[in-house]
Write a structure and sequence with these properties.
There is one protein chain. By secondary structure, the chain is α/β, with parallel strands linked by helices. The protein has a single domain, classed as TIM Barrel (Alpha-Beta Barrel). It has four helices and eight strands, in the order E-E-E-E-E-H-E-H-E-H-E-H. Helix 1 links the parallel strand 5 and strand 6. The protein is globular.
């Protein structure tokens, strides 16, 4: 699934192209608008106090460090681990996934910083070995390879901004470029 993430400016939701499968929104300013979206919604939790079980979202994304005791009815639970400094070893990431599953995760999300090009291989291998629904890739310019290849290794969601105005993390590839790359990969 291709996901557009809107971190600020709720009015940007009106500018999202129809090609997106899912939309990720951040923060309380989006809650009144969630029902208006015509796509499945991921609510990225920034403040646990703003979550209640009556929110009409399809997915809720909590950081692994947060209390996940409140979950909207019917929402799938994404537990996220972000490491903006480096990519831990494959063994360490397997341990983090076990912790996420113990917390009740339906989907595990692993996002790490690629310090070297070789770091891209770790989340891709994690995806290839996983029997759990997962999202995994690396951040940063050196992490672009994992963003491109993650869907081929089983990552459920690719975060692809429509334009540079929607970029929420270093190394994201905008929609037009993403589609060109994916078409080339499909031709093999």
């Amino acid at each position: 699934m291709i996901c557009a993430s809107v971190k600020k400016n709720p009015e940007k939701l009106a500018d999202l192209p129809k090609q997106y499968d899912i939309v990720e929104v951040w923060g309380p300013s989006f809650v009144p608008l969630i029902r208006l979206l015509q796509k499945p919604v991921i609510l990225k939790v920034a403040d646990c106090d703003l979550v209640d079980e009556n929110l009409n979202v399809d997915y809720i994304d909590y950081d692994i460090s947060m209390d996940v005791s409140v979950r909207p009815k019917g929402a799938k639970l994404i537990i996220s681990y972000h490491n903006p400094d480096h990519t831990p070893s494959l063994n360490e990431l397997h341990g983090i996934v076990r912790d996420m599953l113990a917390m009740g995760a339906d989907i595990c999300k692993i996002v790490t910083k690629a310090v070297t090009v070789e770091d891209n291989l770790i989340p891709l291998r994690l995806l290839a070995e996983s029997k759990t629904p997962m999202i995994a890739f690396c951040l940063g310019e050196k992490g672009r390879i994992s963003r491109i290849m993650a869907p081929q290794f089983g990552s459920l969601i690719s975060y692809v901004p429509p334009t540079a105005d929607f970029v929420t993390a270093e190394g994201q590839i905008v929609f037009d470029e993403w589609m060109k790359i994916q078409k080339m990969l499909a031709r093999g």
